[in-house]
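Narrative of accomplishments. A recurring question from our advisory board has been how the design workflow behaves on a single, concrete structure rather than in aggregate. To address it, we present the structure tokens for one chain from the evaluation set, followed by the sequence designed for it. No filtering or post-editing was applied between the two.
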């Protein structure tokens, strides 16, 4: 009651000059009519006495009669604000429920006027002003420096794009020449094949058979080696998983009623008891011995002139050897005569035909890899690299930091790792955040992924890593790529009063 009377007295006192809580430019809205009456601002049909303004009782539905008290409820639809003059700093508005609540809200009312009833908040505007000036000076200098780094990155990105464009043009040009060359060779081959005659004495049938066999055997050997490596890798993986599960079965807490763990342990135990004994695995060595036996047999079947090889480790090589022996006996042809009509009709040897085939094969391989390079580079040129395509400038750059128990490594257009665990591969950049997806699968959860929010700073630095959802990470990355020119007002709006220094 005493407090209420005090507020009333104070408000009335201030009312005689100014309506408390109202900015100077709106004071005139509180002028009463000659008969001492005043109308609510948003509902002029409601008329009250001038003395009811700031009387700590809410008369107007819009709360306009209580600008200097917290009598009218603050709601999001009808927010009520109190004006703090903050002489020497900047005037500000504070939510009315913070008025006379016993707390000095210096972040908004550095003059302490929000606690006018008790008057226990001394004016701290000078110190707040000092902090503000210092912050502005530092923030502006930092921003200038960061923007300089960013400008360098933008120009680096531009250079990288130009370089890529030139490289692509060069490959495309070379590719065009190679494709023409291929065309020419294919025509040459057709002609050579037409002109070549099958000579049973040259053994062309066995020659092409051997050639086929050579290729086939090499392919079989390659496939077998790959299959065998694939199988070894899988065996290792299974062993790893088994040992992890064995560890779980040994160490889990049976008193802890986690049904999925219990079921997992039970199934693992059944799996172990049903697991067959280790079988003997076929090895590449055994395969090679069988193939070598076969090669030796082949040796005895071939005409004597070709049976000059004793021990050759791979049957593919062996057959290839016979094949080379065979074609080396053919005579070369003169390929310099280019016009078919000028040419005498020579008998073109199979060796020459095969020579062209070999060249075609090589060229096709080269064209294939060039084609792939063109596709990759075209994708890179068209990709989304954010505003000013700035990400081109940081391609290949990594930022690393130990936070908590893990070391995080972040590669801009690459991936993020938590120690050696893949958190995600770069997927997109929306101008503010980098998105990384398809990381290592979480134990009974989703694949790991991360959103990297960027904030402006001169150097790249991982500021924080959190895991709001299991295996879904949120990074705050300080980086110059996030910087943009800010107005003084925008910089000022980020100032926060350091209350501990007041
Ligand atoms: C590891 C880390 C954590 C993650 C758990 C999920 O410990 O990758 O971040 O929450 O796995 O099992």
């Amino acid at each position: 009651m005493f407090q209420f009377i005090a507020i009333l007295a104070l408000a009335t006192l201030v009312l005689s000059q100014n309506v408390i809580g109202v900015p100077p430019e709106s004071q005139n809205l509180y002028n009463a009519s000659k008969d001492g009456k005043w109308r609510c601002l948003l509902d002029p049909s409601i008329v009250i006495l001038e003395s009811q303004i700031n009387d700590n009782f809410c008369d107007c539905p819009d709360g306009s009669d209580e600008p200097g008290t917290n009598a009218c409820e603050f709601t999001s639809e009808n927010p009520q604000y109190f004006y703090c003059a903050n002489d020497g700093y900047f005037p500000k508005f504070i939510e009315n429920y913070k008025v006379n609540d016993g707390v000095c809200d210096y972040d908004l009312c550095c003059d302490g006027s929000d606690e006018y009833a008790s008057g226990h908040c001394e004016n701290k505007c000078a110190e707040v002003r000092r902090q503000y000036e210092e912050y502005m000076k530092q923030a502006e200098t930092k921003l200038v420096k960061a923007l300089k780094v960013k400008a360098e990155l933008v120009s680096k990105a531009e250079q990288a794009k130009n370089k890529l464009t030139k490289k692509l043009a060069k490959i495309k040009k070379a590719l065009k020449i190679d494709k023409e060359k291929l065309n020419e060779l294919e025509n040459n081959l057709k002609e050579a094949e037409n002109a070549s005659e099958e000579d049973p004495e040259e053994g062309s049938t066995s020659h092409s058979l051997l050639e086929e066999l050579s290729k086939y055997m090499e392919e079989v050997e390659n496939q077998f080696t790959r299959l065998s490596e694939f199988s070894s890798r899988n065996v290792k993986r299974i062993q790893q998983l088994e040992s992890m599960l064995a560890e779980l079965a040994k160490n889990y807490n049976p008193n802890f009623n986690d049904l999925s763990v219990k079921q997992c342990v039970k199934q693992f135990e059944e799996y172990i008891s049903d697991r067959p004994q280790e079988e003997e695995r076929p090895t590449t060595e055994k395969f090679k011995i069988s193939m070598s036996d076969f090669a030796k047999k082949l040796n005895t079947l071939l005409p004597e002139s070709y049976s000059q090889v004793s021990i050759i480790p791979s049957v593919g090589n062996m057959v290839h050897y016979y094949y080379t022996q065979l074609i080396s006996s053919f005579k070369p042809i003169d390929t310099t005569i280019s016009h078919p009509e000028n040419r005498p009709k020579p008998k073109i040897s199979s060796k020459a035909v095969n020579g062209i085939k070999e060249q075609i094969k090589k060229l096709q391989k080269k064209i294939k890899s060039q084609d792939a390079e063109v596709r990759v580079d075209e994708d890179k040129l068209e990709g989304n690299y954010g505003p000013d395509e700035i990400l081109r400038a940081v391609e290949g750059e990594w930022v690393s930091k130990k936070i908590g128990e893990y070391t995080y490594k972040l590669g801009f257009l690459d991936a993020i790792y938590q120690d050696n665990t893949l958190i995600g591969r770069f997927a997109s950049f929306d101008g503010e955040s980098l998105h990384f997806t398809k990381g290592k699968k979480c134990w009974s959860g989703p694949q790991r992924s991360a959103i990297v929010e960027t904030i402006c700073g001169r150097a790249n630095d991982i500021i924080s890593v959190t895991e709001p959802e299991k295996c879904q990470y949120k990074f705050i990355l300080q980086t110059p790529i996030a910087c943009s020119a800010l107005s003084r007002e925008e910089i000022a709006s980020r100032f926060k009063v350091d209350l501990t220094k007041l």
